[in-house]
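Example record for the data management plan.
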Amino acid sequence: MKGQKANKILFVDDDPHVLNGLRRNLDDMRDQWEMYFSSSGQEALEMLTQPSLPDLIVCDIMMPGLDGFGVLKNVRENPATAMIPFIFLTGRAEKLNMREGMELGADDYLTKPFSASEIIAAINTRLKKKADLDQHSEKKLDELRQNIIYTMPHELRTPLTSIQGCSELIMECGAELEPDKIIEMAKNIHDSSIRLDRLIENYLKFAQIKIIATDSEKVKALQTIHIAGPGGMIREVLTDKAEAAEREQDLLLEIEDQDLTVNITEENLRTIVVELIDNAFKFSRAGTPVRVKTIASEDVFRLNITDHGRGMTAAQTTKLGAYMQFEREIYEQQGSGLGLIIAKGLAELHGGLLTIESIPNQHTSACLTIRRQNPLSLIRPGIGTSLE
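Corresponding structural encoding:
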């Protein structure tokens, strides 16, 4: 593997015979791995404070002081180490405890005694999976960079051009213009400034989501917040947006107003509703219905918004993300594509879920599901944030 960067592997076990056996039996892997050895859980955590972090951790469970479960918990709660693959070493009697390890986020386990070939195969499997995930993440980042390069200049320049053009015309020719014309241009400036403000606000929300997602304590705290009676607020947002879009006749509401509480902040629920209804109106024609229905069970609250616009293919719904727009060469579009990804992030923050189902040229349905009780058990957040 000459010329290829060696993977750093950290082995943790309080038994010196096990560590010596690993050193001896894995000696042939030194050209591929940089191996580090720790004799206690606490020492392992101290090693994880170094600038150079391991690419994978192999850790015994039963150790005095900080055991393997404690090491794993600390690893997963630290944003710098949370994604490091983790393999447990366990005795046969401890095998029944591996459910706890997997729930804490272990990737694999080996039962003692094990052969050199078994541990080499387990480590290489996890390293390959990590490399594949890293490659996928880099590809997604490249797509995001390309979408930003393509979309952001246009989205910023369009309202700015309108603001600059109209204001310049008023300054240079205001004395000669009819009052109605001046009012029309002032409205154009106002509408363009609102569009620009919305773009900047969504960009900041998106940035906050990405930054605060790493703070697990804030995420846990936010998932304990309840609001009562969301139906009234949801109806208010929907009717205001329908009026602004001149689509009052298209909006069909089935909003339940029974006494209930849901696990989300009012501000974040309002943001989700705004983004979903804006998309429904934006991508459907005036005169076609936009149906909104809420359903509350004992455990969850669901909000479903369905429009009958151009829809998306299955491939497009799986690629939804920030600064992602589809068929822009065919359809005139406004917006950065941030709305749905912000709504999805806020839903997941509160232990909820946002799903999109769509059939091209027929309909698109967005379904928000939020836990009413015990939000931590609904779904493990993919991204979480608080904009509080």
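Summary line stored alongside the record: The longest strand covers residues 363-371.
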